[in-house]
Amino acid sequence: MNPMTIAVGDLKVWRLGFGAMRTCGPQVWGWPKHRASALAVLRRAHELGHNFFDTSDAYGPEVNELQIAEALHPYPRDLVIATKGGLLRPSAPRWDRCGRPEHLRRALEGSLKRLRVERIDLYQLHAPDPEVPLEDSIGALADLQKAGKIRHLGVSNVTVAEMNKARRIAPIVSVQNEYNLGNREDEDVLKACEKAGIAFLPWYPLGAGSVLRLAKLKNVAARHAATPAQVALAWLLAHSPVILPIPGTGSLAHLEENAKAVTLRLQAEDLALLD
What is the pTM of this model? Predict the structure, then answer.
C-alpha cells in the first residue's frame, strides 16, 4: 500500500480526507451566507487531492449532501463519498439519536436522492441509539447493503464493545470517533481498529481549534516552519497507519494549509514531545 493512501474496504483513498460539514451555515444549520464560496471549497478540496469526502444527512440538515452534489456531480471516478444516518436535527442545537430501522431506511433513500447516486460508497451509523438494539440498527443497514444500496458499512461514536457487536452483524470497514492530539480518550477504539485492520476516522481532528493552542504543538510547528494545524494533522498521520483524518473548513486558505500536512515529516524527537 502506498503510504499516502489508505484502504476503506476495497477502496483506496488519499490519507487525508475532507470533512464537508463546515461548508454549511453556522452551527451546521442551513445554507452558508456565501453559497458560491462553499461550493468553491468543495471543488478545490478535490483538486488538492482529497478524494474521500465525509458528510451526513444531519449536516444542514440535508444541506451538505446537496452541496456536494451541486459542486461535484457528475462525480470524478476517484471520489469516495461517505455519509451517515441516525441523527435527527429538530433545531440547530439538537443532535438526537434515532437508530430505528424505519428511520434509517428513509434516511438512506434521502441520501441517495440528494447525492444523486444509486449506491452509497460508505454509509455509517452516526451513533448508536440507546433506545434501539444495535442489532436492529446495523441489521437494517446490512439489509440495505444486500439490496445494493450501500457498498460499505461503518459506525461512528462507538465503544470497543459496540464496534465488536456491529462487526458480528455485518462487515464494518470504518469507525468514526472523536480523536485528536488533545483528546485520546478513544485510544482503545483506535487500537481495536488497528487489530481489525479497519479505517479509523477521527472527527474533530483539530479539536475544533482547541488543539492548536497547545504549547508543545506550537514548539514543534516553529521548529518546522509549519502551522500548528499542519503539525496536528501530521501527528495523526504518523500516529497510526489506519487513521484517516477528515479536517473540515469553509475557508479556502485553511483548506490549502491543511492539505500541506501530508508533506510534513515529523522526527522522532517531535513525536516524543507530542506524545
Answer: 0.96
